[in-house]
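Board work, copied verbatim: Transglycosylase SLT domain-containing protein
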Amino acid sequence: MEERIPMTTLIHRLAPIALAALLTACATTPPPTAPAGPAPLPAPTPTVDTAPPTEAEATAPAPAHAMAAELLEDNLRPGEKIDLDSPDVNSDLWARLRAGLQLQDLDDDWVRKAEAWYSARPDYVERMTTRGSRYLFHILEEVEKRDMPAELALLPFIESAFVTHAVSSTKATGMWQFMPATGRDFDLKQNIFRDDRRDVLASTRAALDYLGRLNKMFGDWHLALAAYNWGPGNVQKAIARNQRLGLPTDYASLKMPDETRYYVPKLQAVKNIVLNPDRFALTLPPVANHPYFLSVKIERDIDVSLAAELAGLSLETFQQFNPQMNKPVILAAATPQVLLPYDQASAFAENLARHTGPLATWTAWVVPKTMSPAEAARRTGMAEAALRDVNHIPPKMLVKAGSTLLVPRGEHVQDDVSERLADTAALNLAPDAPPLRRVSFKAGKADTVAGIAARYKVSATQVAQWNKVGSGARFKPGQAVVVYTANTTTAKAAAPVVAKAQAVAKVTRSSKSVRVAAQPKAKGGKGGRGVVAAANP
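↓ predict structure ↓
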């Protein structure tokens, strides 16, 4: 991790207005004192025009620096001031976190296994903790506001290693690994423009809301954590089973999958490392006890690349703090703030206030009728390949009426994308016109998206889109699968099989002497890959 300048040096380097903005923007909770930690990285020189103002600009009633001060806002305690020389602010956040640990310790072979795993990977631990240091202050603040155990602030270490854009094989996404349905239950929007499961603030709020609900449900933090990993219904069933058998119902006594059995011990191992890293020959990066990032209000749609430029950040770094964006534009109606490293926040606010010219080169267009991507491209003045790429439209698909596409924003367009459209925008696709036929069947034991795509001579992207799974997914045995194909051989070959099954069923119903009818075995053996239905879409 790069060396970060001390607080006193930072004060002298900040422009007066940037300092004023920061002083009115930040807040912290007084923690236990500890050796001073480093301040955040200094801001790189912005790559935007910073020429001296003209005489007209100098006499303008609303100077850029005043606008910048109004745009800065801290998400935790707006309006409260921070003393950058305070020992509390310059103390190590790890000490504050250690003081808030509350959960009863586990000490078993599962914990030893997790400790050994982390101890054998010092480089991984260093990357994970350095990455986590960006977000720990905010998470710990939120945990403390709810009077929760500080251990919960460590949970992203085992969920995602603090990778904000992490996606699991089961489509759990973000730092806190929310499944799509659970995310929607906690108001995490998921549409073509953004996925709030990746949003640092929104996902943290939702995760702690969910954990609080689970703790109320089970009255035990270990069981709440098990439910977060395994699902509350499964934990309830495991408790009910033990109750029927007269067995204890604590975490260690329940019958559960190994993944869940290992879940809380992994958290315990991370806790043990935080308490005493030297014991495991590991090093934790020092983390200053003040916000690593601040939020800056945006009032107009803005391109992601321009926002990064105004902040003086690389696109990759900007996206680490704002990973929820699915498109190259930030819609102010749905995302009224961006997160930026502590030092870049004031620079961004001032540069944004000074900026002249368009902020967004993209806008949303609602497709008036079902059409091909080629026709949509002609109507919007785009190359078809570019429209397909930015909107993730696979080959041989039509865009259905009412879908929303991201398209270039013409000079005549003055209005930003509305809040309703920013929150509800969806892309609905349909297979291109006949001779495509709809084929549905049940997946076999080894069926994957790639395998089915090869079998039906279509792309894996299409199979994934049709079945709403990832392109690398494996289907569960018996899972219903849909394919649209121009090859009708499979469908026609299925007709005699279906006719035979219907004939056997008819004999069964009409003959008293027939008690059991033999059914045709689905192609592919147990689990079945036989065609269930085939028809024009």
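The first strand starts at residue 72 and ends at 73.
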